[in-house]
TrEMBL record:
Domain of life: Bacteria
Domain Protein kinase: 127-498
Protein name: Ubiquinone biosynthesis protein
CDD domains named among the record's database cross-references: ABC1_ADCK3-like
PROSITE patterns from the UniProt entry: PROTEIN_KINASE_DOM
Segments traversing the membrane: 501-522, 534-553
Keywords, sorted A to Z: Membrane, Transmembrane, Transmembrane helix, Ubiquinone
């Protein structure tokens, strides 16, 4: 830990100074970061540039993220899908972040491809486009053609991205360690868990073979669909740093003039797109999590194509049923059913006041039940649901927020193409289908079989477990471990008080000894100074030293409280 702190010291100091520049001096002065900013460079946020402080606190957080670079931008983009962790105004700001990164030289891209494949570029591609088709913080995409004639796109990872991401992840862990108490006081109860989850996500994103596997999975799921197509990945030409994918031509799904020119119905295209996406969620439980217009193409024959499978969400069968139950409960205007399904959906279902929770859901139902179908908006509903999740600190699967975000994006696409597009009209039949699947004979049999298997396993191990417990009781070896949580701060304070009490008692004892030393009878060899024996001066000096330590400890504690 100490080694990481030293290696990241310069970058951490830069982060602290950026925080101060944008008016977050309290984050620095309230945490261990204050030790990293020299006194000469400390200044009050009230003396900053006026233009910065005319913005909101949420906007300034976004400015800080933008200045700190791509890894921090990616973390903020990931958090923009987590309404259970962050307030909606901050999520709105994070959704504005764009990681616009200039491309790296094509010579480096060629060198990386040759290193990964272990052979010259000309032995794999007959053509390789010098100008990249797109560029991002992790890598960039080049057009190419295989020696066998197939046109492909090649995703190439940046040459130094893995080292940069590792450095920034180490920095994030260090920042969380230094600021964890402050973040908890702001309502972020598990900052370390967030960084750990982000680290897993980034590690997966840095491995292009994971994206290739997702594409192959979706190709298998939709192999019988004529209206939907996923490009083929070339696994034999792909590694964790490069990914070769079949090139698919088409226009963006929102390019309405082009759709009309091809003789396609934009309304039909929008309906097909929504049906395909809802099938992913409610039937397969695996879905493309970033369906923005640039990732959804339409071929001249009307076939929809999804590209870029770097972000894929998944729901278990039980999560799928609970998520559908939330919408079904809302359609039936049943707040209790919504609350029950929210609890089933949550990873931890500790809701302190269920009555208040149901009342808030009832209010949400009333707000939307009175609206005309044309007035209903998936964006408004998603915001309302996310506000309730945040208010009650429900820890729901991250995939839920990816779904809500994707439905909002798809609704925006649908309204461009379809003047009467309404997301709820598409969701309703899928909800009914899910209810039928949940209570089907096959599912009930599977659930009964699972429960029976678990019960049988319990019955098989119960006798031996009970026998082992009884043996320990008879030998007097049974120990009960009681762990108290939430008392760490109190115990630390008590330890500090005891230590200072002992120090103060020693100081008082030394002072008393110094007073008593004045009454002693000393031999002629005992040196005196200003009429007092030297032993008295030594005692007073030791007492003064102990009192100085007590004063320093008290001042340090006071500064921490401030």
């Amino acid at each position: 830990m100490f080694k990481n702190t030293i290696s990241n010291l310069t970058r951490i100091r830069q982060v602290a100074e950026v925080l101060i520049r944008y008016g977050f001096e309290d984050v620095v002065t309230s945490t261990a970061l204050r030790r990293l900013v020299p006194q000469s460079r400390r200044r009050s946020w009230q003396e900053g540039e006026q233009a910065v402080f005319e913005t909101t606190r949420w906007q300034r957080i976004r400015m800080i993220i933008e200045e700190l670079g791509p890894t921090f931008i990616k973390l903020a983009q990931a958090l923009s899908n987590r309404a259970d962790l962050l307030p909606q105004p901050l999520i709105d700001e994070f959704e504005k972040l764009q990681s616009n990164v200039p491309p790296f030289p094509v010579a480096q891209a060629r060198r990386i491809i040759e290193q990964e494949l272990g052979r010259p570029l000309e032995e794999v591609f007959s053509e390789f486009e010098e100008v990249p088709l797109g560029s991002a913080s992790i890598g960039q995409v080049h057009g190419a053609r295989l020696l066998t004639g197939e046109k492909v796109v090649v995703k190439v990872q940046r040459p130094d991205v893995q080292e940069k991401v590792r450095t920034d992840l180490s920095l994030l862990h260090e920042l969380v360690r230094l600021t964890a108490p402050f973040l908890r006081r702001q309502g972020l109860s598990n900052p370390q868990d967030i960084v750990d989850a982000f680290e897993r996500s980034m590690t997966k994103e840095l491995d292009y073979t994971s994206e290739a596997r997702s594409m192959e999975q979706f190709r298998k799921l939709y192999e019988d669909y004529d209206s939907f197509y996923i490009p083929q990945p070339y696994r034999e030409l792909s590694t964790n740093r490069i990914l070769v994918i079949e090139f698919v031509s088409g226009c963006k799904i929102t390019d309405k003039p082009q759709l009309l020119e091809w003789g396609l119905s934009p309304e039909k295209v929008a309906e097909t797109g929504m049906d395909i996406y809802l099938t992913q969620i409610f039937e397969f439980g695996a879905f493309h999590a970033d369906p923005h217009p640039g990732n959804v193409l339409v071929r001249p024959d009307g076939t929809l194509v999804l590209i870029d499978f770097g972000m894929v969400g998944r729901l278990s069968k039980q999560q799928k049923y609970a998520f559908a139950g939330v919408f079904i409960g809302m359609a039936r205007q049943d707040a209790r059913s919504m609350a029950l399904n929210f609890r089933r959906l949550a990873l931890t279902s500790e809701i302190p006041d269920m009555r208040a929770f149901e009342a808030d859901l009832s209010q949400l139902i009333e707000d939307f039940a009175l609206l005309d179908v044309k007035e209903m908006s998936m964006s408004d509903l998603a915001d309302a649901l996310q506000n309730i999740i945040y208010r009650y600190k429900l820890q729901v699967p991250g995939s839920v927020f990816l779904i809500l975000r994707a439905l909002v994006i798809l609704e925006g696409i649908g309204k461009v193409l379809h003047p009467r597009f309404n997301t709820f009209e598409f969701v309703r039949p899928y909800g009914a289908r899910i209810i039928g699947e949940q209570y089907s004979r096959e599912n009930i049999q599977n659930e009964a079989l699972y429960t029976g298997t678990q019960l049988l396993a319990l019955l098989q191990t119960l006798p031996s477990d009970v026998r082992q417990i009884m043996r320990k009781i008879s030998r007097g070896d049974l120990r009960v471990r009681v762990e108290l949580s939430g008392y760490q701060l109190l115990m630390r304070k008590a330890d500090q008080l005891v230590s200072r009490g002992i120090l103060a008692a020693v100081a008082v004892a030394v002072i008393v000894f110094a007073g008593l030393s004045l009454l002693g009878q000393y031999p002629a060899t005992m040196p005196f100074y200003r009429g007092l024996p030297v032993v008295t001066w030594y005692s007073l000096g030791l007492a003064a030293f102990l009192l100085l330590i007590l004063f320093i400890l008290g001042t340090k504690n006071e500064r921490r409280r401030e």
